[in-house]
Amino acid sequence: MTSLTSAPPASRTSPERTPRSRLRFWRSPAGQPRWARPALLGIAALAALLYTWNITSSGFAPYYSLAARSMSVSWEAFLFTSLDPSATLTLDKIGGFLWPQALSARIFGFHDWALVLPQCVMGVISVLVMYRLVRRWQGPAAGLLAAGLLTVTPVAASMFGHAMLDGSVTMCLVLAADQYQRAVRSARLRSLLLCGLWIGLGFQAKMMEAWVIVPALFVGYVVAAPVRLRRRLGQLALAGALMFAVSLSWVALMTFTPERDRPYVDGSTDNSAAAMVFGYNGFNRLHAGLVDGAAPVSSNGLWGSGGASRTPPPAGNGAGADGTDGADGTDGRDQGDTARRPSGGPSDGPANRQPGGTANGQAGKQPAGSPTGPADKQPSGTPTGPSSGPSKAPSNRSSAAPPGAQPDRSTRAPATDGSRKGRAGAGPAGRQVGQEAPSRASLWLKLLRSPRLTPQIAWLYPLALISLAIGLARHRKAPRTHQGRAGHLMWGTWLVTAAAVLSALGNLPHTAYVAVLAPPLTALSAAGTVTLWRAHRAAPGGPRAWLLPAVVVIETAWTIHLASKHVDFAPWLIPLLVAATLVAVLALAPFGTSRRTVLVVGLLAGCVAMFAAPTTWSLSVLNERYRGSAVDAYAGPGNDARISTGTRTVRAGDVRVPTTPTPAQSGLLDYVDEHDGSAKYAFSTEGWETSAPYVYATGAPVLPLAGLHADSLTLAEYRHLVATGDLRFALVTEAGTKTSKISSWVASACAEVDPRAYGAAGRGSDKAPAQTLYRCEPSDATSH
């Protein structure tokens, strides 16, 4: 009699096939059942359907899509992952996740679907590789179930359908696990090196999150690789060296390239890529101040549906003049981005920076309705430019300064008042209203209790943990190199490590963060389901026959607990789960019949009871109301973040980022194109938000003076650009002339351009600060 400790039965192999049949991709390869390949293709087709259904209406995330646009027209911006085509300022993170998007936009043109297409492909690849991973470990049935469960994990169904960084790192980690599995079975160094390569590429996509898998792979290989310990450690050292080399390649590029020849590193206060990566995006999220030189990180955590919000800051406050904020007690910026210093706060920058929270005094400069933050910080509305006037189609720039033309930074004079420092904020701006901030204990339990996170990832918690316990118990006396135990050890360590890291992070402004839990949850759940079914069939009348129905009851009870918070979404769901559970228990209970047909019905009913809810949530992305957005990944109801624009609150999914210029913006572009001569920059703007519509329109090399945290230039450097003729025009706001020394100098030294010269009827409206175009001559920089 087979028990839980027995090995899974061998797969039924397909008969011999002729070489000609290899061209028939729907036929299962030798060694796999006939139904394996067709079923896998069906699952892959479902994944492709879910991920691409909204591809033409997925929308843009302004901060990241602006960088993708810049990288698509400038190879220098592509290399340095810069926010602007002139490569003067980086993102506040490594932008490796944008490389596929930028290449796609370069090939197909800049469209939202062009940015999403690589993510859809990555999602289907992840599903296919998940099948191969689990099939090698637990057989084709478990592999198919794992691939299917990954497909219908709600956060994945939305994430892979939008242009997000989390899809890239998820695929890289699944591919790394695939190569690890090859290595741990045969101790092949090549496979282990490829594993390290994929982790390194995942680091380029989302930095230290890619390393969450390292403990699992290290433990699994040390325990189970079929070679002596000394060789195991040596191979791991080589793979680790390659992993670190690939991971740190961009940091090394930024560190060893002279500062005058590369963009300034946003997310840092000292132009340090290491501080940005390991401080702002790394250890400082666990405890503030662990790494010096990093931009401050908010300590607020994600909690609630709608949750606590922030009131719009007063005029002139550098904390985002639009008043946008997160909807869940966060500061509304990606990965806890710090809010800017309130007006009147102390300045930690050089002498040319005024109080107001920005190193160049850019507080309060952005017009209302313009994109004013990263993906989770978008308000509705149109990026504003000069007032509307006669329409003029944007033209290509002259040969002296084509779109994406790159300046020679060797002409940039060094700053005389210190290095360019980031806008280090003293704390979050505004105040929280409504729901009180959660306690630290609540933040530690957010993966179990957060109403925004749990419907996206938590459905399989009980099944995965029970499967892990059963798997480790099955193989407790197995040889060291037993692959069944090695798999449970790897997946279990991955799950525990990722859960611990996410729990320790107080701030999870995006639900997509939890996608790193999806591979181990689905792999363990699939393996456990198949194991319990085999054990039940092997001992239909024994005590162990109660284990499968008991697990079905436990898993369904947890599922009903989660679904009960959204009964209006699918009123039929809970009754279906209850009915399926009753059928499963009656059919699988050992006091009934042991006929195969009845048992199969019980198994199918049990699968419906356990997996119908996440499947329903995932399939809801076919309805645009529940598809998520470019701001955040979620499927199903009750998860769409609310974003304050300062005057009203909008759904994140309703945010639209226009990429077509207004008539006034087109006129300004044409005017500058005709009059800038050989200047390397089209014109300067006070911030990346103001430059966005012009970069979207033509990829013009607009110079933003401020990013999300840092300023790209000091006043001395700015005047040097004017003196050398590299910069002839500046677009400033009235508020900027009062708070920024650069804008104040431009207004006092340069000549204002008549708005009618570029087709603008006026200089603003009550809803948007006036933006004025100035023309600066080289003599202005020396005479004022």
How far is the first residue's CA from the last residue's CA?
94 Å
Task: Assign an overall shape.
Answer: elongated
Largest sheet: 5 strands, mixed
Give the % helix.
40-55%
Average pLDDT score: 79
Residues in β-strands, percent:
under 5%
Major sheet: order of its strands?
Answer: 6-5-7-9-8
Radius of gyration: 28 Å
Q: In total, how many beta strands?
A: 9
**Count of helices?**
28
Class by helix and strand content?
mainly alpha
- Low-pLDDT runs of 5+ residues are 1-20, 299-385, 387-408, 410-422, 424-435, 763-769
What do these coordinates show?
With 784 residues, this protein is mainly alpha-helical. Helix content is 46%, strand content 3%. It has 28 helices and nine strands. Strands 6-5-7-9-8 form a five-stranded mixed sheet, with helices on both faces. It has a two-stranded antiparallel ribbon with strand order 1-2. Helix 8 packs parallel to helix 10, helix 17 runs antiparallel to helix 20 and helix 18 (483-504) packs across helix 19. The longest helix is centred in the first third of the chain and has 27 residues, at 112-138. It is elongated. Residues 1-20, 299-385, 387-408, 410-422, 424-435 and 763-769 have low confidence and may be disordered.
Tag the structure with descriptive keywords.
784 residues, mainly alpha, five-stranded mixed beta sheet, two-stranded antiparallel ribbon, 46% helix, disordered N terminus
What's a quick, concise take on this entry?
With 784 residues, the protein is mainly alpha-helical.
